[in-house]
Amino acid sequence: MRRDRLSGGRAQPLNRFDKRPRGKRLGQVGDATRRDCRGAYRLAVVAGNVDDRESHIFGRQTLANPLLARLARHFDCPIHGTRIVRLENHRFRAELTEEIRPARDASGKIDIAGTMQIITFVVEQWVRQCPEQWLWLHRRWRT
Predict the structure, then answer these.
(1) What is the SS3 assignment for 26?
(2) How many independent structural domains does the chain possess?
(3) What is the chain's alpha carbon radius of gyration, rounded to the nearest angstrom?
């Protein structure tokens, strides 16, 4: 949705296909939801700035951002892998994995480094399955 001077400030659909009903705005959600969102944002900022964890992919040492494992540890939520596979005729298929069981330490908490290694292994399996689907544009092998 967008607002402009020509519509008199009323919200207009971005295009003729955008006719979905709108839910609550962020300012209209309950206090608990706002607190949860702020807490998740703060955790993401802190976890995103933490040094990458060493991991191995294709038998080589690499670095992996621990954000996903830290969020799973903080919220104790399931982890699922998601990928988009290119098909013929400009079509795509979205795939969702079964729950990825995180590694846990002796006290039962999610082990960040171990969980990142498990997730990296899932990505490695995807690349081995369809190598033509992958193109690394960043320094994946830096350590």
Answers:
(1) helix
(2) 1
(3) 20
